[in-house]
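User: Teach me something about this protein's shape.
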Amino acid sequence: MLNPVFYQFSISTTLILLVGFYGLTFIFSTLASKKSDSVDGYMVANGAVGFGIAAASMTATWIWAASFYGAASSGYKYGLSGSLHYGLWGALMILFIYPYGQRFRELAPRARTLAEIMQARHGSSSQLILAISNLVGSVISLMVNFTAAGALVSVLTPLSFEVGVLIAGIGVLSYTLWSGFRASILTDFAQVVAMMVVAIVLIPWVYFNMGGSEALLQGFDIITTEQADLFSTKAILEQGAPFFVAVLAYGIGNQTIAQRLFAVRKDLIKSSFVTATLGYGSIVIGLGMLGMMALFMGITPHDGDMNNLIPQVASAYLPAVAIGMLFILVIGSLSSTADSDLSALSAIVMTDIYAKNLAKRKIDNKKMLLLGRITMIIATALGLILASFSLDILVMLVFVGALWGTLVFPVIASCYWERVTNRAFLSAVLGGLILFCAVRFEWFSLVSAWASSLELIAAIGGGTVIGLMFFGFTNHKVALLAGAIVGVLCAYYFHDFLRDYSVLLSSLVAYGASTVICTAVSLTSNERFDFALIHERIQHFDD
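Assistant: First, the predicted structure itself:
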């Protein structure tokens, strides 16, 4: 079956679905949470969020537009291993984050942002680097989610791409503006329950309507050897490994994740994130299977656009009611992440820009709340404008993740190692970023000694990633040993090889360069930091 015609809702049905979804979400958030007059409540719900809400919010936030379109694209492009690479590594990164979240809460139980901890640890310059990277990353995330909404509306309804983008932006802003983070996490709970129910129903529905296992087995005749291989080397190098590296950076550098670490009750961090790991993995692997099934059935993406796969599969194999369920499922997933981005942006501007740098010791809570709400309005407008460019979702995902990769080691080291200095932090981030850009945008040809040097730095980056994962669950000796072994193996296998995979090379170079620079500069200093100072320097604004 090639290029099935898209099913299209009527304008009236479309408006009922969209207005109904956002209207019910607005009513739910209004009834469940009143307009917030507490700045700490507006940003992190006073750090008292319970298990169910926290786990659901983490799952819903991690499942965003890229989880739908990216997972389906990966399943279609890489076959059997594609959906596993996308869902499994993303799920494991949620699991690997929580030990560091516990450390952040131990150092600063009253914190609102990770950048705020860096300000207490190093000063304003390091804080602003982390804050600005999050401002950029969250705006890009808004753009991606609004773009996905516009793309879905444009293919399944008579409405234009621009109208879909506008409705999504206004809808998300409407229920997030007044109650802030509380509204975000409460609606996340409702949305993730709906997502799980719809996914459990729709994915088997598509499978059986396609003809079940017999029809899919016939697809083995039309796919490549790599696509039929569950352990495809191509899939690992082009999709699995870059995504694995990118999402670790997302977990540490992204304020939407940090905000939930600071919001959930400290004793519930582990259980909440383990549950979110299972929820994310099961839903996203299932979504990736939609792309894999499309591959096996010989469906060609309409206009060559991978983002059309999910609506194409739905149009070909689902009745109108089920397509409506899928429509709401995708809208709900991207909305849950978009409202998290708005909450993250407002927290960064309120805390890191206003409270810590502009207001100094003369903080006006009413002015801070007003600034947070204005930030949401401006961010929504900016996200809507940028969404008109319709940039590729997977490319943006890997780029931002690698960009945050330069921050991972300096941030974690700053929370454990008393010798890390502000100069080491800044040098590591800037040096890693420059090298990442040089590789990612091919400023120089990847040949001879230059390429070999980058491959060695990337090997150090690979060792850093594994070492940090072991460190979170064991101790520094085991982490150093594991990192060293992996680093040596990477150095052997990467030589004269990784230069052909610039996405993975640039991502690992970001890790490796920042690790080497941060460690080297820190060792040149005799400074020692007292971590108890972080607790003293970060207080509740409401107090």
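Now, about its shape. The mean pLDDT is 86. The radius of gyration is 23 Å. If you'd like, I can walk through any region in more detail.
User: That's plenty for now, thanks!
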